[in-house]
Amino acid sequence: MAGFGRKGDDGINECQTADQAPMTSSTYFVSQLEEWIFLKYLEKYFLYVIIYSTMLLVVILTPFIIPLCILFFVYLSSFFCLIYQRTHRLQEDYSSNRWDSVRLTVANKWDQFARFWNGYELHGTENLPDGPGLIIYYHGSIPVDYLYFLYRLFILKRRLCYSVADEFVFKLPGLKPLIDLMGFMRGTKEECLNVLKNGHLVGLSPGGVREALFSDQSYKLLWCKRKGFAEVAIDAKVPIIPMYTQNVREGFRTFGSITLTRWLYEHVKIPVLPPYGGLPVKFRTYIGEPIRYDPNITAVELAKKTKAALQSLIQKHQQIPGNICSALKERFHEEKKKD
User: Fold this and answer.
1) What are the tens digits of pLDDT across the range 275-328?
2) Model pTM?
3) Of 6, 55, 207, 248, which alpha carbon lies 20 to 30 A from 304's?
């Protein structure tokens, strides 16, 4: 019957199938041995492929771990606000003092992280006015340094600084409790004027997301011809206070040099490609001397004066171009140099 071994004419066992030529037992053994060896090596190298693929994936994802952790902390803070509101049945507006205990709890946790990971320092708080003022800051790849500032300021002075955020921030699901708690707003001219006239600080970055994505280690300000903030300061008759965080570009980087990044941003107006980095470099936020209200200055002149003051603050405290190794050295080995 086809498919079974039979005795050959020469007395040697043969194996064959209906569609195959007769195969001797020795040939069959060699064939099975080769198949076994192939499977053995396939299993061995398959394991290597899995191991090296996993290692490659870890290497690729490592630069994004800290940014993802920061995003997780942001959502965790927002979730905490929501739980607190539900459990304590708070009906008051987030601007109410009844929310100060929540703000302080969230601020303390963020400040602990800032101290641990970046050795965060805040200098120049004496330059902040007791009344209203407009804080103009340099926008890093991730404005985590600005969050550090907001929380440290609240811890030190129990003072809330309202902040102008990009429109896409308000479209992120689940962040509304934290956004409201920390005073983030879309920043229309009327909204900013109202907050300033009520005696509060307002923080904004004229460069915004564009500066975050496309500035680099040279710390160039990308403001285009924006002067709306200057108009607000003039109308509200408040000082402008420049602010900048040392090594913020060494802490986090973006894919801003890639043509695709600029093309995507110009078409969708949101940062599509994620930032990366998160090295524990030294962060020091410097608050510069205020630019006092001058009724005789125009908005264009005030915008140029503010830009020059902020650029001067950067040049005074920042190694340009920025260097990651130097920033790490400052974090672990050097004390703050006297101004």
Assistant:
1) 889 989 999 999 999 999 999 999 999 999 999 999 999 999 999 999 999 999
2) 0.82
3) 248
- What whole-number distance in Å separates Cα of residue 115 and Cα of residue 119? 4
Ordered by start, the domain boundaries in the chain are 8-59, 63-333
pLDDT at 274: 82
Q: Is CATH 3.40.1130 the classification given to domain 63-333?
A: yes
**Contact residues for 300 (Cβ-Cβ < 8 A; gap 6+):** 227, 230
Relative to beta strand 23-24, strand 13-15 is: antiparallel
What token pair was written down for 273?
A: 């490609």
Peptide bond into 271 cis (omega under 30): no
Residue positions annotated with a catalytic role:
139
CA–CA separation, 241 and 137 (whole Å): 8
Average pLDDT estimate for 238-244? 98
